[in-house]
Each structure stands twice: as C-alpha cells, then as structure tokens.
Design goal:
By secondary structure, the chain is an alpha+beta fold. The protein has a single domain, classed as Cytochrome P450 (Cytochrome p450), CATH 1.10.630. Helix content is 46%, strand content 10%. Strand 1 and strand 2 form a beta hairpin. Helix 8 packs across helix 11 and helix 11 runs parallel beside helix 15. The radius of gyration is 21 Å and the shape is globular. The chain binds protoporphyrin IX containing FE. Protoporphyrin IX containing FE binds next to helix 3, helix 7, helix 11 and helix 15.
C-alpha cells in the first residue's frame, strides 16, 4: 500500500469504505462504476471528501464544477494531477507544463502562444494523414475475428498525430504510451520512481529540442523554440513543459474517447446501425459521446482555508474537478443518464470550462470523427467479445485500455 507524504498514516490506495468520505479515483472500482458513483454522490452528498492524498474534495454537480473552474482567485492550477506530492508554492503562476499548470496572469500569454497551432484550419491539414493512418490500422485487422480496439486502433491515432505535429520519430509511439501511463495513471508509485519517470520524459524532450535547434523544421517543436514571450525567446524548460503537455494531454484523452465511443457502439446495435447508415448524424453523436463518456478530470489546489459550498476546505487540499460528473447532472441535461445520439442541444463540459478550456478541441474532434468514420465505413458489423473483459483506466483520464471487439 502506498502512503501519503503530508500525513504519513494516510493510505492513498486500497479499497474504498465509503465514497462520500473516503473516495479514491485510483481504485479499479471507481474506473468501472464511475457513473453510478457520481450519480449517488450528486444525489446525496454532493461534495465528497477523502483523507487520502493529504485531503481532497470531489464536487459532482455541474454548478459546483463550473464555479470552481472559473474561480482562479481561490483555486490554483499549480498542479493538475493528484498525487501525494504538492509542488512548492513558488511553482505558481507558471507550473511545470504551461498553460495547464499556470494561473493568471501568466496563463493568458502562455495559452496565446499555442492557439495558432490548433485552429480549425491548421488541424484540417492533418486530416488526410489521419484518415490514411486509420485505414492502415484497419488493414492490419485482415484475417482477425477479435481485435483490441483500444490497443490496436484507438491508441495509435492520437499518438501518431501529435508525434507528426511535434516532429518526433513515428517509431517512438510505444515510448509515448509508457510516458502517458507513468505520468497520468501510475501516480501511486514512490516519489523516487515518479521523479525518475519525469526525468526520463524531460530528457527525451530536451533531446528533441536539441535536434530541432540543430535542424529547424516546419513543425510544432521548431515553432515553440522560435516563439517569443514578452519579447524574449522561451526558456528551454518552458518549451519542454509545453511539449510535455501536448504529448500527454493529446494522447490518452483522445485514445480514451475513441475507445469509449466504439465501446458504446459495440454494445448498442441500434445506434451502430443508425450511424452506419447516416453519416450526417455522426458529428452529433460524437458530441453526445463526449458528454456521456467525457474522459478528463483535472485537479485544482485550494489556495486558502475557507468555507466553500457548505464544506470547510483547507489550503492545499486537492479538488478533483470531475467535468465528466458535471456532464451527467440531471439539473443541467435532460435525460442525463441516457446516451441520445441525436441530442440537439449539448453544451457539455468535456473540454473543460473557463480559462483552461481545451486548446486541442478541434484536433480532438477531427481525430475522433475520422476514427469513427473509417471504422464504421470499413467495419459496419461488430460487437463486444464477451470472452475477455474490458479494462478501464484508473486515475484522472477515463477510457477503455483493453477493449476486445469481435469483427468477424
Ligand atoms: C477528446 C480529447 C480531449 C479532451 C476530452 C480534452 C479535455 C481537456 C480538458 C477538460 C481541459 C481543461 C483542463 C483544466 O481545466 O485544467 C483541457 C485542456 C487542455 N487540452 Fe485537452 N482534451 C482533449 C484533447 C486534447 C488534444 C488532442 C490536445 C492537443 C494536442 C489538447 C491540449 C490541451 C491543452 C494544451 C490544454 C490546456 C489549456 C489551458 O490550460 O489553457 N487536448 N483538455
């Protein structure tokens, strides 16, 4: 069992006794039953607490999630992945991976740097290559009756797209999958192990920066190296931090979303048949999948002791900001617990709310729609293979990591 640094007697992993007072997003039970857990908490609690991680809160109502996301005065993004470690206060307002770890006023300028690289027009340039990639992944299923749609399809799409955009060698894909796992899922390892993973990731990124300084190219890494903030080139640490963010933020999020959408269609033949027949409906269905299976929960740190939403928060308590729970709040969405692939009005929070709203949302939508289009056009008949289990990731990014699908 792993132990918390702030209060050494507190255990951070192990079975949950009561979700309202002892929640943990690191348990397989949370990964498998997240929707039911949020519904129960929202109806009864509605801001859950845990002593794990040195103290954390879990709001589940849309209204609370929205209020916290907008309140950068009282909630900091200094670190957005919960573990037993809190970065020092002087990490604010920049943080290790700007702009997601930045607070105002620095956040605004760090974010502005990234925006031109992720407009709809820039993203459209990746579309043909993404289609080709999806087709080549389906080509490789030739002769298979069952495939793992998470590992043999969904995972590769965002990995290859972001590697191309950053100008990294495409064969480094498996290394990125390991970085993603170690930085975002395996947060219950010892501080030394986590430090070693962080160093390995940053060594890799600095190597790429050196390579691009020696040989500049038309890609995102060269763009960031040449970018200026307040009239000066960025520090190499800032460039590497942004690259780390793009690598990590872009991969398992989109991978999870493609996987969850295919999981839904594998279990709901009516929806599958409707989308196979009606290409126009796919973009609307995609928004509903984003709402219903939103993969990303980010964290905040409470800045000072205060009474908030009827509970007593302490400085440096974590907030597990569950955008996916907000998306299932019946106060906000009609028939919130149902997946309606033709839902017309759908102002979901899957890409976040407030100043940190996802910079990569156009890219994510393009990848998701292309992934669905190619799969549905090439494999119209498919279903879950019941002989092997589906495995959902634990931690803050939720999606299927093993997804056996029968295609033949
Ligand atoms: C379906 C896929 C995705 C989902 C659901 C998603 C979701 C989110 C969410 C909820 C946030 C807000 C974080 C917060 O409030 O702390 C966020 C921020 C961010 N995302 Fe995404 N994301 C996805 C894909 C991507 C991709 C493909 C990229 C780019 C490669 C990307 C880049 C970013 C960046 C840079 C931020 C930080 C923005 C800021 O702090 O101003 N995301 N994303």
């Amino acid at each position: 069992m792993a132990v918390d640094e702030r209060s050494p007697e507190a255990v951070i992993t192990g079975p949950v006794a009561d979700w309202a007072t002892d929640f943990s997003h690191l348990e397989p039970e949370y990964a498998e039953n997240a929707h039911a857990i949020w519904d129960e908490l929202r109806a009864t609690c509605p801001i859950a607490h845990t002593e794990r991680f040195g103290g954390a809160w879990l709001p589940t109502r849309y209204e609370d999630v929205q209020a916290i996301a907008y309140d950068t005065e009282r909630f900091s993004s200094r670190h957005i992945i919960i573990s037993d470690h809190r970065p020092p206060l002087d990490a604010a307002p920049i943080g290790g991976a700007p702009p997601i770890t930045s607070d105002p006023p620095f956040h605004h300028d760090a974010r502005k740097l990234l925006l031109p690289a992720f407009t709809k027009t820039r993203v459209a340039k990746q579309e043909e290559a993404t289609k080709d990639l999806c087709h080549s992944l389906v080509d490789a299923f030739e002769g298979c009756e069952v495939v793992d749609a998470a590992r043999e399809y969904a995972m590769h799409i965002p990995m290859r797209v972001i590697a191309d955009m950053l100008g990294f060698p495409p064969e480094d894909g498996p290394t990125f999958a390991r970085f993603v796992h170690e930085m975002l899922e395996a947060v219950d390892r010892s501080p030394e192990e986590r430090q070693a993973s962080t160093e390995e990731l940053f060594d890799y990124l600095h190597e790429q920066i050196r390579d691009h300084v020696a040989d500049p190219r038309d890609d995102l890494t060269s763009y960031l190296i040449e970018a200026e903030l307040h009239g000066r080139a960025l520090e190499p640490q800032h460039v590497a931090g942004m690259m780390a963010l793009l690598l990590l933020a872009g991969i398992d999020t989109t991978w999870s979303m493609i996987g969850s959408s295919l999981w839904h269609l594998a279990r709901n033949p009516q929806d599958r048949r409707r989308l196979v027949a009606d290409r126009e409906l796919r973009a609307t269905a995609m928004e509903e999948f984003l709402r219903a299976y939103a993969p990303v929960t980010m964290a905040r740190l409470v800045k000072q002791d205060m009474r908030w939403g009827g509970v007593d928060m302490k400085a440096d308590d974590w907030i597990l900001l569950a955008f996916p729970a907000a998306n299932r709040d019946p106060e906000r969405f009609d028939r919130a617990d149902e997946v309606l692939i033709d839902r017309e009005v759908n102002r979901h929070a899957a890409f976040g709310l407030g100043i940190h709203r996802c910079v990569g949302s156009h890219l994510a939508r393009m990848e998701l729609l292309v992934a669905l289009d190619v799969w549905l056009d090439r494999i119209p008949e498919f279903g879950l293979d019941e002989s092997a289990p589906v495995r959902w990731s634990t931690g803050q990014i939720r999606g299927p990591r093993e997804l056996p699908i029968r295609i033949g």
